[in-house]
Amino acid sequence: MHDGRGHRTLPTVEDTEALGRELAAQLHAGDLVVLDGPLGAGKTALTRGIAAGLGVQGRVSSPTFIIARQHRAGAEPGAVGLVHVDAYRLGGDLDELDALDLDTELDDAVVVVEWGLGVVEHLADRHLRVLLRREPESDTRTAEWEWVG
Ligand SMILES: Nc1ncnc2c1ncn2[C@@H]1O[C@H](COP(=O)(O)OP(=O)(O)OP(=O)(O)O)[C@@H](O)[C@H]1O
Ligand SMILES: [Mg+2]
């Protein structure tokens, strides 16, 4: 369905999660996904869809104190894990980012980083960049995605 880039209008949170499931179909261990968009744009909702598509364990949430959460691979053969990072609280602190050891995590998992634009791209040769936008006073979001690098 994708040739690696696209654009979609997302009227409901279910549509955002469904896009995440579709994007997961093109993700493999070692892939980096960078999510950008304002507060409440649906970055965590999209990550929930990616997690569902990969079939990983554990519930995706938007943790207050945890910067990165690991989700182990599901039982399917060839299943990969997911590391879900919320870089908002890092505030661009590169030492803290280094401490997460994401390049090691990338050896055998998909890494999704909310608020990762301009912060984590150096961790991989290329990344899937997803920009989410929010229509004022409406549930509708739009997503634009592209492999960069
Ligand atoms: N079309 C939509 N897509 C995604 N979320 C939607 C949509 N319509 C309504 N919502 C609601 O908007 C909120 C999106 O929250 P979510 O935590 O996914 O955003 P976020 O971008 O991760 O925010 P933050 O920057 O705080 O991490 C949820 O409450 C969700 O139910
Ligand atoms: Mg979030």
From TrEMBL:
Its main location: cytoplasm. GO terms for biological process: tRNA threonylcarbamoyladenosine modification. The gene is ydiB. Belongs to the TsaE family. PANTHER family: TRNA THREONYLCARBAMOYLADENOSINE BIOSYNTHESIS PROTEIN TSAE (PTHR33540:SF2). It is found in: Cytoplasm. The lineage of its organism: Bacteria, Bacillati, Actinomycetota, Actinomycetes, Mycobacteriales. This is tRNA threonylcarbamoyladenosine biosynthesis protein TsaE. One of its GO terms (cellular component) is cytoplasm. The keyword Coiled coil does not apply. Keywords: ATP-binding, Cytoplasm, Magnesium, Metal-binding, Nucleotide-binding, Transferase, tRNA processing.
